[in-house]
Amino acid sequence: MSDLEELYREILLDHYRSPRNAGHVPGATHSADGANPLCGDAVHLELTLDGDGRIAGIAFSGHGCSISQASSSLMTEYVKGRDADAALAAVGDFQRMMIEGDPPPAADFGDLEALAGVAKFPVRVKCASLAWKTLEQALADKRGASAAVTTDERSL
Ligand code: ZN
């Protein structure tokens, strides 16, 4: 294992063991549920958009494999404080990374790059993508609503 792979493994383990933004957002304006039946992963996402369309608060709860939970934690950390359009663009960038194995050059992914290696394991891509598809679903209704998504039924 290279030094970089070791670092990435440690980032993912850290987010799995100590998830960021775990729990609930009081008075959340948007929420969605995501499931990946193939692996048994489930994510419930809550967020609040402020008057400027920025993600003022975001939290997740759920269970599943280390990749799905670490990806949820990393995703919430990345999009918190960004505006909804930027968050949706990041969903697209993340999906590109899951196909190409590298983040798009313009993406400033930071620790999220720890998930790039998942692209080599197609079955696990659904695990890593779950939180992102759920975020996309939560933001799909700009007025705020709850929604559900399964990565098993939706292609990348
Ligand atoms: Zn999984």
Explained architecture:
With 156 residues, the protein is an alpha+beta fold. It has one domain (3-148): Sufe protein. Chain: A (Alpha-Beta Complex), CATH 3.90.1010.10. It is 42% helix and 19% strand. It is built from 4 helices and 4 strands; from the N terminus they run αβββαααβ. The chain has a 4-stranded mixed sheet, with helices on one face. A hairpin with a 4-residue loop joins strand 1 (30-36) and strand 2. It is globular and about 45 Å long. The N and C termini lie far apart (29 Å). Bound molecules: zinc ion.
* Count of domains: 1
The low-confidence runs, each spanning 5 or more residues with pLDDT under 50, are none
Largest sheet, in brief, is: 4 strands, mixed
Specify the CATH architecture. Alpha-Beta Complex
Order of helices and strands: HEEEHHHE
Q: What oligomerization state is this entry in?
A: single chain
State the name of the first-level CATH class. Answer: Alpha Beta
SSE-based structural type = alpha+beta
Number of strand segments: 4
The side-by-side strand order for the widest beta sheet comes to: 3-2-1-4
Q: Average pLDDT value?
A: 92
Heterogens: zinc ion
* CATH fold-level name: Sufe protein. Chain: A
Gross geometry: globular
Q: Which bin fits the share of residues in helices?
A: 40-55%
Strand content: 15-25%
| Total DSSP helices | 4
Radius of gyration: 14 Å
Distance between the termini: 29 Å
Topology diagram in text:
Blueprint: H1 3-17, E1 30-36, E2 41-49, E3 55-63, H2 66-79, H3 84-100, H4 122-140, E4 146-150
Parallel strand pairs: 1-4
Antiparallel strand pairs: 1-2, 2-3
Helix pairs in contact: 1-2, 2-4, 3-4
The site of zinc ion has 8 residues, from α2.
